[in-house]
């Protein structure tokens, strides 16, 4: 995972899926990394993209995706 960087973190799988799908629709190479402990459900999900896409992905997420 050396050439991949985190652009979004959440405790909710549905939010991670929305962000991943949005980025993939925009032709990013986005994947979900599950960092939750399966026994206690502590932790979070990360969306990672390639290092070349990090800045564009963060800008799109900040400008286009709102969870309230």
Automatic annotation (TrEMBL):
Residue intervals of the DUF2007 domain: 4-63
Lineage: Bacteria, Pseudomonadati, Bacteroidota, Cytophagia, Cytophagales
InterPro entries: DUF2007 (IPR018551)
A Pfam family: DUF2007
Species name: Marivirga sericea
Protein name, as recorded: Putative signal transducing protein
């Amino acid at each position: 995972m050396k050439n991949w960087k985190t652009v979004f973190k959440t405790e909710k799988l549905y939010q991670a899926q929305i962000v991943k799908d949005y980025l993939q629709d925009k032709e990013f190479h986005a994947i979900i990394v599950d960092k939750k402990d399966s026994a206690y459900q502590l932790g979070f999900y990360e969306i990672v993209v390639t290092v070349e896409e990090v800045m564009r992905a963060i800008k799109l997420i900040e400008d286009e995706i709102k969870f309230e």
